[in-house]
Design goal:
Blueprint (H helix, E strand, L loop, with lengths): L3 E6 L3 E4 L3 E6 L2 H18 L4 E4 L6 H12 L9 E4 L14 H10 L19 H14 L4 E3 L33
Helix pairs in contact: 1-2
């Protein structure tokens, strides 16, 4: 398993674990800059970088800062691949709530990654269980050099999406939407 690195906005400190490195910074802007710089440096110093990206408002300014660096020619993502963590089914990628659309529109296109290297969960798959199995196989090949995840807001702290009671060993899987209460 590749090591994971979290960058969170608190007083600067580093927490080490065999599989996870958590780095905290004193404020939001420093955190955004550090996360963007980590993405940029991975793209520069890795021949064929693979990124696994998170969605959500935490990531928007990070991805925008990376796009600014692409815009001025400071970094090139033409050899990069991106994957993401979760999707909503059924969901058209043009829908504002689409996770795949989020990754495509906030990272893939602005970072000028060739569309065939933007590897998304098919949120419109006829059979979501088969799509989960397909994506699981894809992620076995596209093992990320950098896993980028935000940590949710204080009222809903979370790292990426792991459903309650879900084993970390479960892999990619489909969770049917529960009926509204």
């Amino acid at each position: 398993m590749p090591s994971l690195e979290y960058v969170v906005g608190r007083n600067y400190q580093e927490i080490y674990h065999p599989d996870v490195r958590i780095v905290s910074f004193p404020d939001r802007e420093t955190t955004i800059t550090a996360a963007a710089n980590r993405i940029i440096s991975t793209a520069i110093y890795t021949e064929y970088p693979i990124f696994q990206l998170a969605t959500g408002s935490t990531m928007e300014p990070v991805y925008e800062k990376v796009a600014q660096a692409v815009g001025i020619g400071a970094v090139n993502f033409d050899r990069a691949h991106i994957t993401h963590l979760d999707g909503r089914h059924p969901m058209d990628t043009t829908h504002p709530s689409s996770f795949g659309g989020f990754i495509k529109n906030r990272a893939g296109i602005p970072w000028k990654i060739p569309i065939e290297q933007v590897c998304l969960i098919n949120e419109q798959a006829e059979n979501p269980w088969e799509e989960a199995a397909r994506y699981e196989e894809l992620l076995k090949v596209l093992v990320p050099h950098l896993f980028v995840a935000g940590i949710g807001p204080p009222e809903d702290p979370h790292a990426a999406f792991i459903g309650r009671g879900t084993s970390f060993d479960m892999g990619v899987h489909y969770i049917p939407k529960l009926p509204d209460a």
